[in-house]
Write a structure and sequence with these properties.
Blueprint: E1 3-6, H1 10-21, E2 30-33, H2 40-45, E3 50-52, E4 64-67, H3 74-81, E5 90-93, H4 100-107, E6 111-116, E7 126-132, H5 138-148, E8 152-156, H6 162-171, H7 173-190, H8 195-215, H9 220-227, H10 233-243, H11 246-270
Parallel strand pairs: 1-2, 1-4, 2-3, 4-5, 5-6, 7-8
Antiparallel strand pairs: 6-7
Bound molecules: NADP nicotinamide-adenine-dinucleotide phosphate.
NADP nicotinamide-adenine-dinucleotide phosphate binds near residues 6, 94 and 117.
C-alpha cells in the first residue's frame, strides 16, 4: 500500500516510526510531503527517502493520503493539493476538530477516515477513535484499522459526532491521568519522599493497578472496596473525595472537554484557524 504522509511534524514522524517498527509498512511504500525541507534528513534516517516539499501530480499515485498538518493549516494545504488528487483516493485525517464533510468539500474527495488519536500513539500505546464517510468500503476501513493498530488500540464509531466524546475521554484523557499523578507526587514529596522516590511510587502504583485490573474481572467499585477496609486509611481518603464530590468534578470536566470539542468542530467549519 503506497502511503503519503502530509505534514512531517510530531505526529507524522511518530506514525511513520510506528508503521516501520511494527512492519505494517515498508519504508519504500512511504512518502512524506512536508513544507520544511530541513526535515528531509529526519525521514531519510528512518529509511524513508521519498520526500516532497511541493505538491504535484505524483500525489495521485498513493493508495492512502494521511493528513497530519495542524488544523489551522488545513485550508491552505487543501488549496495547494486539491488540483493534484483524484476524487477516488482514500484520505485518513488525524487533524483534531476538522469534520469529514469539511475535508470532502475542501479536497473534493469522498472517501475519508477521521481519527482522533492521543499522545501515547507516539509510542505505539495510543487510543484512537475513528469514523468514516459512507463511501469508504469495508476492506478499506479494515486495512486502515490494521495500519492504526501499530499506534495502539482503535475504536470505530459509525456516528462521527462520537469522535467529540472520544476526544473528551481518550483524546484529553492522558492529561487527566497525569494531573492525578502530579497531585499525588507533590503530596508524596511533602510527606517526606524525595522526587525520585515519589516518582517511582506513583509510576508503579498506576502501572500495577492497571495490570491488576486487566487481569481480574472485578469492577472498579469492587477493587476500591478490596483496598478500602472499614475504618482504615483508604476509607479516610475516599471520604474526602466524596466530601469534595470528586466524581462530580470529573464528570463536569469531561463534559467541558466534550462541549469544547463540539464548539471547535462547529467553528472550524467556518474558520479552520479557530482550532489550535
Ligand atoms: N500531538 C498530539 O498528541 C495530537 C493528538 C491528536 C491529534 N493531533 C493532530 O495531529 C496533527 C499534527 O499535529 P503535530 O503535533 O504533529 O503538529 P506539527 O508538529 O506542527 O506538525 C505539522 C507539520 O505539518 C507541516 N505543514 C504545515 N502546513 C503544511 C503544508 N501546507 N504543506 C505541508 N506541510 C505542512 C508543518 O511544517 P512547519 O512546522 O514548517 O509549519 C509541520 O512540520 C494536528 O492536526 C493535531 O490536531 C495531535
Amino acid at each position: 500500500m503506497k502511503i503519503i504522509i502530509i505534514g512531517g511534524g510530531n505526529m507524522g514522524q511518530s506514525y511513520i516510526k510506528s508503521f516501520l517498527d511494527n512492519d505494517t509498512a515498508d519504508a519504500s511504500e512511504l512518502s512524506v510531503y512536508e513544507k520544511s525541507a530541513d526535515k528531509k534528513e529526519v525521514f531519510a534516517s528512518m529509511g524513508v527517502k521519498n520526500f516532497y516539499t511541493q505538491p504535484g501530480s505524483y500525489l495521485e499515485k498513493f493508495d492512502l493520503i494521511l493528513l497530519a498538518v495542524k488544523p489551522q493549516n488545513f485550508k491552505e494545504l487543501a488549496g495547494e493539493i486539491v488540483g493534484y488528487i483524484s476524487k477516488d483516493q482514500l484520505v485518513l485525517s488525524i487533524m483534531a476538530g476538522i469534520e469529514i464533510e469539511q475535508i470532502q468539500s475542501l479536497l473534493k474527495v469522498q472517501k475519508i477516515i477521521r481519527v482522533m488519536p492521543n499522545l501515547a500513539a507516539q509510542i505505539g500505546q495510543g487510543m484512537s477513535v475513528l469514523s468514516s464517510s459512507a463511501e469508504v468500503s469495508r476492506i478499506e476501513l479494515v486495512t486502515v484499522q490494521n495500519l492504526l493498530e501499530s499506534t495502539g488500540k482503535n475504536l470505530y464509531v459509525s456516528d462521527e459526532m462520537l469522535i467529540n466524546a472520544g476526544t473528551a475521554v481518550s483524546g484529553s484523557g492522558p492529561a487527566y491521568v497525569l494531573y492525578f499523578m502530579k497531585s499525588m507526587k507533590d503530596t508524596a514529596i511533602e510527606l517526606g519522599f524525595t522526587k525520585a522516590q515519589a516518582e517511582l511510587m506513583i509510576y508503579q502504583t498506576f502501572k500495577g493497578i492497571l495490570e491488576y485490573y486487566k487481569n481480574h474481572n472485578d469492577s472498579c467499585e469492587d477493587l476500591i472496596q478490596k483496598v478500602a477496609s472499614k475504618g482504615g486509611t483508604t476509607e479516610a481518603a475516599l471520604k474526602v473525595f466524596e466530601e469534595f464530590q470528586l466524581d462530580k468534578t470529573i464528570h463536569k470536566a469531561l463534559y467541558a472537554a466534550y462541549n469544547r470539542a463540539v464548539e471547535l468542530g462547529k467553528s472550524s467549519s467556518d474558520d479552520p484557524k479557530a482550532i489550535g
